Amino acid sequence: MKPTKEQLAAAIDRTLPDVIAPGLAVLFSGINPGLYSAATGRHFARPGNRFWPALHRSGFTPRQLRPDEQEELLGYGLGITNVADRATARAEELSTPELIAGAELLTAKVRQYQPVWLAVVGVTAYRTAYRRPKATFGVQPETIGPTRIWVLPNPSGLNAHYTPNALAAEFALLRHAAMPQESVA
User: Fold this and answer.
1) Do residues 122 and 154 make contact, with C-beta atoms less than 8 angstroms apart?
2) Domain coverage including residue 114
3) Within-domain flag for 183
4) pLDDT over 70 for what percent of the chain?
5) Which residue windows are coiled coil (predicted)?
6) Residue 156, CB half-sphere, CA atoms under 13 Å: how many?
7) Model-level pTM greater than 0.85?
8) In contact, 16 and 43? CB cutoff 8 Å
9) What are the φ/ψ torsions at residue 122 (nearest 5 degrees)?
10) How far apart are CA 41 and CA 11, in angstroms?
11) What is the mean pLDDT of residues 42-69?
12) Which of 15, 34, 127, 177 is the most buried (most CB within 10 A)?
């Protein structure tokens, strides 16, 4: 059910629970929840967000999951969290100190749960949060303990730089690195 304007307004500053477990192959980290996601309680829930299609088209899942099926990701060795927990209408509303503090909390989660890969979706947020101004897409030279880091394009429908096919191709590069033995669905 689509949230009303009132429900969206009430979702400002809400947080979403992580979809996380120890030892995941990939922990995907959004920048922060949008108001639509916060209002529905589901990650990447806004219609037009291309996370779920990219996940499927890249071979991470055998079918396209819906946001209300997010818990099924755990069965595929995948999880979702965010750099910053606070819901906003646009990621640009987050301050640099807020992103840096969020990266510290995300780093603590990664140390606790130890996924093989942390995949941050949004290079600009990654650059700011982790103080890596020259970071590019793909594997990063830094690690968090044994966890390797991969930066993906932001799947928001507002990111016009990446077509759905190009976004799925970027996700597929990570899937091949994270799960080389698995065939693309």
Assistant:
1) yes
2) 5-178
3) no
4) 97
5) none
6) 18
7) yes
8) yes
9) 135, 100
10) 10
11) 96
12) 34
